[in-house]
């Protein structure tokens, strides 16, 4: 990351963020620190200019109507973490954490250290504010997206943070689906942070520093690294491939399709959530070795598309609409009645489309030498029930023989923070 | 990856590689497959031209004096796998596996599918040769480097493959070091494959397909993904940072320093290994949370360099030689007697330098919410004893309080394969 811009150069008023958390983290030696408060937009402009010639220097604004990382062109790498609040955390702890996280995210997304004193600019007798592994790296299109899980509002019947009454009805545990094999330790979470960047070191740096800031107030419950995005959200992106070798996300909602975003992705309410969304997270283990032993025609039949081009089996090219009525020479449906592309298609699901933002993952191997690989499925929608509808439609999906859902979580994604405010502020107004 | 080049276009004779393994893998339906044999150099030339304008289209030759992936400029991403041979594997199995691996690697490193029929060009009634997730992706500077572990030569006193007499004395288990906390399931291995690329999907595709080719002959024992290379091996690379936030590899051996490579990296013998090397692998868990709580001066003292610039504490810039005799104002050594940079320095280790090629890793988190993070240390040297000498010198390293070695392995790295031959051929001559 770039050296911190001296606070004096900022013409934007300091956002009213509490520094309590960071100061608490830094401990006694931090008294002399000047923690600057720079508006993300001003910083972004400076950094974007400096990095204009650098492809990985893409900078996305942190403040705005919607949080970045949803409609933003999907980046190459992901580090995702679900957090739980500490048992004795208070409402003030939660508010200060969201403020501190927003402040830090508004800086890191602009290619800056986590605070104005950063990795090397503070007192030499204090621990550095920033852990330093991203020093010298550009912003790399980093986006940081915060979410709030159902248990944050009420857990075991206890309203720990005085927000139980504000939980949207739509924010609740997903129902159990046929075939689920969920690991509780890799599911759920009271808060989440999705860090996406075109450099994995930048994404890891973000999660690490946000985890550090949370120390004493919240801790990571589970986390995941992903690579090889499996969706496109920008028309100039090539459709990527999942680990079954098929193009994924051909018909995904594009980030500049305002109408589809309004209809399908942004939540209308309650008021504190308007302009936000809901995130569904599913860790889907792919049984790649059995898949790899299937013949090509069978793989194509299961997906409903051709492996090479990604065209629907009813004909055409990747972007031809599937013709589910078309019959093959034998009089059978060209696209199998239980093909993945058919069961998931909006035509059979009340027009529902999800904005997908998933990533491939490989987490070592099991004792038999099989890669522990799969799809870290992330979808944004205006109501989690939309995901439920599609997931239930996939009950007879031919693909189910080759996949297993091992993790699950759902989060409300607040709208973007206004300059000088923080993500989730509306919840406490 | 690019569509397979039709075998007819090749002007290079087919290398004499057995197709037995791949044919066996493909099963009965594979009888009609034409498995092409293209020389890597010819393919490389074609692909390099096609991708000339694409930064990730860098293509490294597979065949040559040395294996690629050692002196090659270090890439952004790593997938590493250690394999064990099947209990009932024969000498012929081992030879055919090394042939098949070399054939597949000679193609994938050129941006091609694993065979001429590839992901979609074979019989539709057969499983595809290639798993397909890298279709359309360029070579991405992929290198694939093969190694042979001590147990391959003799295990529990049994000479399974008739090569026990050819084991170099230098190839043996590393001694136990102070503080080692090794996990046997994440250590050792009879074979290893190091896949490095500038796209993680390309590196994963390589390991996955090589594992598939090995089916029935060998299986993955343990594996690791890495990102954020922690060394530079090319003078035009910026020095990267490890997860302690410090520049790593400032004084590393560069890939074009022929004299240093000859003196320090390439093995002189035995004859089948001449021009090869030895690879030492150490999984080093970094205790990043305690580290992050240390004051900056203490972090600098432990490393012996400044965090921002990476200059030795004796003064100057990153590339200034450390002056270990220099005293500070208080009359104490400017660089602590137990600083990492001092204990590891060639001046105190008989001039020994290692060619390091390590990567950062983050494998989720532990139940307390700490990131399971660290350095996947890879070093190449002409004799593993050189690593042992330095590792023993680090016995009193101040850094030891913050790290723990949890995995260990050593491999002989054969020289590069000649066009038409395979890696390790000399061992069976």
Number of strand segments of chain A: 9
Q: Provide the helix percentage of chain A.
A: 10-25%
Q: What are the segments of chain A in which pLDDT stays under 50 over at least 5 consecutive residues? A: 1-54
CA-CA gap between termini of chain A: 34 Å
Overall mean pLDDT of chain A stands at 88
Morphology call of chain A: globular
Largest sheet, strands/sense/barrel of chain A: 9 strands, antiparallel
**Strand residue percentage of chain A:** 15-25%
Q: What is the overall number of helices of chain A?
A: 10
Q: What structural class do the secondary elements of chain A suggest?
A: alpha+beta
Oligomeric status of the shown chains?
Answer: homodimer
Measured by residues with Cβ under 8 Å of the partner chain's Cβ, the largest interface is:
A-B, 72 and 72 residues
Rg over alpha carbons of chain A:
22 Å
Tell me the series of helices and strands of chain A, N- to C-terminal. HHEHEHEHEHEHHHEEEHE
EC number (chains A, B): 1.11.1.-
Cofactor (chains A, B): heme b
Domain Dyp-type peroxidase N-terminal (chains A, B): 67-227
Protein name (chains A, B): Deferrochelatase
Give your account of this protein's structure.
The structure is a homodimer of 429-residue chains. With 429 residues, the first copy, chain A, is an alpha+beta fold. In chain A, strands 1, 2, 3, 4, 5, 6, 7, 8 and 9 form a 9-stranded antiparallel sheet that branches. Chain A starts with 19 loop residues before the first helix and ends in a 16-residue tail after the last strand. In chain A, helix 3 runs antiparallel to helix 5. Chain A has helices spanning 20-26, 40-50, 91-108, 150-153, 200-214, 258-265, 288-292, 296-303, 340-343, 384-393; strands at residues 77-85, 143-148, 191-197, 218-229, 277-286, 355-356, 359-365, 371-381, 403-413. The model of chain A is unreliable at 1-54 (pLDDT under 50). In chain A, a hairpin with a 5-residue loop joins strand 7 and strand 8 (371-381).
């Amino acid at each position: 990351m770039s050296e911190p811009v001296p606070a004096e150069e900022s013409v934007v008023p300091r956002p009213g963020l509490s520094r309590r958390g960071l100061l608490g983290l830094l401990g006694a030696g931090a008294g002399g620190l000047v923690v600057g408060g720079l508006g993300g937009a001003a910083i972004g402009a400076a950094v974007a200019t400096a990095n204009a010639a650098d492809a990985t220097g893409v900078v996305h604004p942190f403040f705005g109507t919607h949080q970045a990382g949803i409609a933003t062109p999907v980046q190459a790498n992901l580090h995702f973490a679900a957090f739980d609040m500490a048992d004795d955390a208070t409402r003030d702890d939660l508010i200060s954490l969201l403020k501190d996280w927003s402040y830090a995210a508004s800086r890191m997304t602009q290619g800056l250290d986590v605070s104005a004193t950063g990795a090397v600019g503070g007192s030499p007798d204090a621990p550095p504010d920033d852990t330093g592994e991203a020093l010298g790296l550009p912003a790399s299109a980093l986006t940081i997206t915060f979410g709030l899980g159902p248990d944050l509002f009420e857990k075991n019947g206890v309203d720990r943070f005085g927000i139980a009454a504000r939980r949207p009805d739509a924010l609740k545990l997903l129902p159990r689906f046929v075939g689920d094999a969920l690991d509780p330790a890799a599911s759920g979470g009271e808060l989440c942070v999705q860090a996406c960047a075109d450099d994995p070191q930048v994404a890891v740096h973000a999660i690490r520093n946000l985890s550090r800031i949370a120390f004493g107030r919240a801790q990571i419950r589970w986390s995941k690294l992903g690579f090889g995005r499996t969706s496109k959200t920008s028309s100039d992106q090539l459709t990527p491939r999942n680990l079954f070798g098929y193009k994924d996300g051909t018909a995904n909602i594009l980030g500049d399709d305002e109408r589809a975003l309004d209809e399908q992705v942004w939540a209308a309410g309650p008021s504190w959530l308007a302009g936000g969304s809901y995130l569904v997270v599913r860790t889907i283990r792919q049984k790649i070795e059995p898949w790899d032993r299937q013949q090509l025609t069978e793989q194509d039949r299961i997906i409903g598309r051709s492996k090479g081009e990604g065209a629907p089996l009813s004909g055409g090219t990747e972007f031809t609409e599937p013709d589910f009525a078309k019959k093959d020479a034998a009089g059978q449906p060209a696209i199998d009645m239980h093909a993945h592309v058919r069961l998931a298609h909006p035509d059979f699901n009340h027009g529902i489309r999800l904005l997908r933002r998933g990533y491939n993952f490989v987490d070592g191997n099991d004792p038999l030498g099989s890669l522990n690989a799969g799809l870290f499925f992330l979808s944004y929608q205006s109501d989690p029930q939309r995901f439920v509808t599609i997931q239930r439609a996939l009950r007879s999906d031919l693909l189910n023989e080759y996949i297993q859902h091992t993790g699950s979580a759902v989060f409300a994604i607040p709208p973007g923070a206004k300059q000088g405010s923080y993500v989730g502020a509306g919840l406490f107004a």
